[in-house]
Amino acid sequence: MEKIYDVVIIGAGPAGLSAGLYAARAKMSTLILEKSKTGGQIATTEEVANYPGSIEHASGPSLTARMVEQCKEFGAEMEKDTVVSVNFDEPIKVIQGEKNTYHARAVIAAPGASPRLLGVPGEKELTGKGVSYCATCDADFFTDFEVFVVGGGDSAVEEAMFLTKFARKVTIVHRREELRAAKSIQEKAFKNPKIDFMWNTAIKEIKGDGVVEAVTFENLVTGEITEYEAHEDDGTFGIFCFVGYLPQTDLFKGLLDMDKAGYFITDDNMKTNVPGVYAAGDCRVKSLRQVVTAVADGAIAAVQAEKYIDHTFHE
């Protein structure tokens, strides 16, 4: 008979690792599955400056390493495997990976969400070195520098306004000739003296040796190509991309309730529409996607999973 875990957690980002810690500390047999890099999005973050208590300049990898160590210390198992299908029809859930099949009394889905990339040369190489997808995370690094914000929706414009608290100048780069953000948000942006706009414009290439040093723009109406270089006194500038997020939830379509964008719909206790299945982290509908909210989700999901198992299997 295959081993039946109390909890199988899909995803080893902050939400999954937090869930693993709480589940293992509660003496539940716990398995965390991760298909690629442990830590999720913070694995590529140079410094996690807004995580409470992180005052010694913890990096994403170092914070992740601590979380992993805690999980293992309390007995959580970790396995590198890509989940290809799940079956939640029976009380014992079945998780099919490329390598193995796993069985669990409860499942916590924490697959995360990934920012939609621009898909231009230099973007991946300079992510975390001037290219960012989170103003809340990285705005402070660009105090008194210039930054460009790519996008024209609510998130892009709101983040641009947030960035004006730090940067000396913020330029919104948008593919169209008018913003898609709500009119009330637009009005505030237009009134902000620190915000400029580049209409009908797309980024074609991001350049730099170790940090962002230049960016190439294309005017989508005229075809004109221009290049912006960092001021010599600065040496760099910021590029913040807000063209959408992609929740990594395709595996669960048709099984778990989602909104139109593909984010899991849960209640405050991380419960999905399937008993014994929980969702945690950036993959679910929420107002703030940060490490601090992800770890809170994971803790709640694990505590609720313990209650579910006690009620369902031990009474």
In a few lines, what is going on in this structure?
This protein has 315 residues and is an alpha/beta fold.
Describe the structure.
It contains six helices and 17 strands. With 315 residues, it is an alpha/beta fold. The chain is elongated. It is 23% helix and 26% strand. Strands 1, 2, 3, 4, 5, 6 and 17 form a seven-stranded mixed sheet that branches. A five-stranded parallel sheet has the order 8-15-9-10-11. A three-stranded antiparallel sheet has the order 12-13-14, with no helix packed on it. The chain has two domains: 181 residues, FAD/NAD(P)-binding domain, CATH 3.50.50; 111 residues, 3-Layer(bba) Sandwich (FAD/NAD(P)-binding domain), CATH 3.50.50. β1, α1 and β2 form a beta-alpha-beta unit.
- Regions with little confidence, pLDDT below 50 for 5+ residues: none
- The CATH homologous superfamily of the largest domain: FAD/NAD(P)-binding domain
Q: What top-tier CATH class of the largest domain fits best? A: Alpha Beta
Q: From N to C, what is the helix and strand string?
A: EHEHEEEEEEHEHEHEEEEEEEH
CATH 2nd-level architecture of the largest domain = 3-Layer(bba) Sandwich
Shape: elongated
C-alpha Rg (nearest Å): 21 Å
Query: Would you tell me the structural class of the helices and strands?
Result: alpha/beta
Biggest sheet descriptor: 7 strands, mixed
Distance between the termini: 23 Å
Oligomer: single chain
Fold-level CATH name of the largest domain: FAD/NAD(P)-binding domain
Count of helical stretches: 6
Mean pLDDT: 94
**In what range is the share of β-strand residues?**
25-35%
Query: What share of residues is helical?
Result: 10-25%
The counted number of beta strands is: 17
Domain module tally: 2
